[in-house]
Design goal:
This protein is α/β, with parallel strands linked by helices. It has helices at about 10-25, 35-40, 60-70, 90-100, 110-120, 135-140; strands at about 5-10, 30, 50, 80-85, 105. A 5-stranded parallel β-sheet has the order 2-1-3-4-5, with helices on both faces. Helix 4 (about 90-100) links the parallel strand 4 (about 80-85) and strand 5 (about 105). It starts with a strand and ends in a 20-residue tail after the last helix.
Length: about 160
């Protein structure tokens, strides 16, 4: 199963840069452009990593973070949450976010390739054979799929006679 990344980011250019770099590195990436959709998609429990901007339309990133960390509100969520922001916050607000998140990144201080390198230390990409990113609307409407065809049985080892 591929390592799946959900990018909740309202700036198209940034989300496109992240998605391209992550996909090239072997991650399967889905982008949501607002917090309301992002929260709904993240709650499916299908994502290993969530890149979460703070200043996003709909449900803001701080509320998305709180709800994802609340097991009563998001019982299926088990992913890592990485805050990605350019918002200049006071030390107290940043410390509160860092307590709930797995990491905190200032977008202006990191390139997409550096982001990939950082994420590889948290959750490396897995085999992505056959995995395609899904649009949030497709994901919400998709029922669980039956497993694909079984892999061929391994060949027995050769014996020396």
């Amino acid at each position: 199963m591929a390592t799946r990344v959900l990018c909740i980011e309202d700036e198209f250019f940034i989300s496109e840069l992240y998605a391209r770099a992550l996909n090239k590195a072997g991650y399967v990436t889905t982008v949501c452009m607002n917090g309301t959709d992002g929260l709904e998609v993240a709650r499916t429990g299908k994502y290993d990593i969530v890149l979460l901007d703070i200043m996003i339309p709909g449900t803001d990133g701080t509320e998305v973070l709180r709800q994802l960390r609340d097991p009563r509100r998001s019982p299926d969520f088990r992913g890592k949450i990485i805050i990605t922001t350019n918002l200049d916050q006071d030390d107290e607000a940043r410390a509160e976010l860092e307590k709930l998140a797995d990491a905190y990144i200032v977008k202006a201080d990191i390139t997409p390739n550096e982001l990939v390198s950082f994420l590889q230390t948290i959750v490396p990409p897995a085999d992505t054979t056959g995995d395609e990113p899904m649009a949030p609307t497709e994901l919400a409407a998709t029922a669980p799929q039956p497993p694909g065809p079984a892999a061929p049985a391994p060949k027995p080892p050769l014996e020396n006679k």
